TrEMBL record:
Transmembrane segments: none annotated. Pfam families: APH. Residues 31-267 form the Aminoglycoside phosphotransferase domain. This is Aminoglycoside phosphotransferase domain-containing protein. PANTHER family: CELL CYCLE REGULATOR CCRZ (PTHR40086:SF1), PHOSPHOTRANSFERASE YTMP-RELATED (PTHR40086).
Length: 350
């Protein structure tokens, strides 16, 4: 997709925002897809005068995300200098423009998937990674409490309620096979309800109070430039103090020594946790993966079928936009991709 093709498909409000920050699109502009996740879609716009990130929010994530809260929590993190500067958000909150952090090394090389009790690992792919992560965790935990609150029991209740409602409905955009695949996984998750409730009781017992929580500090949401910066605040809220630590431990390749150091130093000075919170860390990691399963099922049911995706791709030569009001046509993720996420996540739970 060329810069001019992108420009032609943007609302006048967004075009004006680009011009106001000095981002003038022409045939020499380079546009590169940055998205590696399955929710929203980020593009690096590089001109002779600077670099910016244009983010297009997906319709599926709109259904499970409060965009106003996302922006407020992004700005809280920005005030602590751990988030890129937000330069513009469209009136409908479907498009964001932010500064580009020219990171020196790709932090996502640490991406992995860990169980609550991983095997002993002596290899350190990134020396001192635990200190950078600790600094970020402590900075985020010290931010003012977000207005939007979401306790872990409340999150589970809302996920279960939404999924149960979908299970009783016939999603017209899914074919019979897709509905069966979705229902099978829904039943697998619901069979784990008693265990999830037990984990939540254990976690609530070690919490003295909530704190600012990003809730998805996986390596793809972190940038390294002298320190760690984080992006994607759509699930940030006031929540349990172990949530962010758990997301780091679940998704980062760290040595056993680095993990132990990070856990002990984080727990040592956290005022929102009891002195015996260590025993609840494995539970927090498992809840992270359980909630990931819920997310995968919700995203799958909220998206178009694979047939719609394939049709869109076939009619989308050179990644150009075919609909001016919907960027999903060229940034689509398939139904199967979300179910694969569910399968990967559920396999990590002991």
């Amino acid at each position: 997709m060329s810069a001019l093709q992108l420009f032609d498909q943007l609302d006048e409000e967004v075009r004006l925002a680009l011009k106001n920050v000095g981002c003038l699109l022409d045939n020499n502009t380079m546009i590169t897809a940055l998205s590696r996740g399955l929710s929203n879609h980020n593009y690096l716009i590089a001109t002779e005068t600077g670099k910016w990130v244009l983010r297009l929010n997906s319709a599926a994530s709109n259904g499970i995300c409060d965009r106003n809260a996302e922006l407020a929590n992004w700005r809280l993190a920005q005030s602590a200098d751990v988030a890129p500067k937000l330069l513009f958000n469209s009136t409908n909150n479907q498009c964001y423009l932010s500064e580009y952090i020219e990171h020196s090394t790709d932090w996502s090389v640490l991406m992995c998937a860990n169980r609550a009790h991983p095997l002993i690992d002596c290899f350190e792919p990134w020396p001192e990674a635990e200190q950078y992560l600790l600094n970020l965790l402590n900075t985020l935990s010290s931010l003012p409490l977000p207005i939007n609150q979401m306790s872990l029991p409340q999150q589970w209740h809302e996920y279960r309620q939404a999924l149960t409602q979908h299970s009783r409905q016939q999603a017209c955009h899914l074919n019979i096979v897709q509905r069966q695949l979705w229902q099978t996984r829904f039943k697998v998750l619901m069979a784990q309800s008693d265990k999830i409730e037990q984990l939540l009781v254990l976690l609530q017992a070690c919490m003295l109070g909530p704190q600012y929580s990003h809730r998805d500090l996986n390596p793809h949401n972190l940038l390294f430039k002298n320190k760690l910066w984080c992006i994607d605040y759509e699930y940030a809220c006031s929540s349990h103090p172990l949530v962010d630590l758990a997301s780091v431990l679940a998704t980062h390749r760290l040595s056993t020594s680095q993990r132990h150091t990070l856990i002990s130093r984080y727990l040592e000075h956290n005022p929102n946790l009891t002195s015996d919170a260590l025993k609840a860390v494995p539970a927090a990691i498992e809840i992270y993966w359980y909630f990931g399963c819920c997310w995968g099922l919700l995203m799958a049911i909220s998206h178009h079928s694979d047939m719609d995706s394939n049709t869109s791709s076939e009619n989308n030569d050179d990644d150009t936009l075919t609909r001016t009001d919907n960027f999903e046509s060229f940034t689509h993720h398939s139904f199967d991709a979300y179910l694969n996420c569910f399968d990967d996540f559920i396999a990590l739970i002991d």
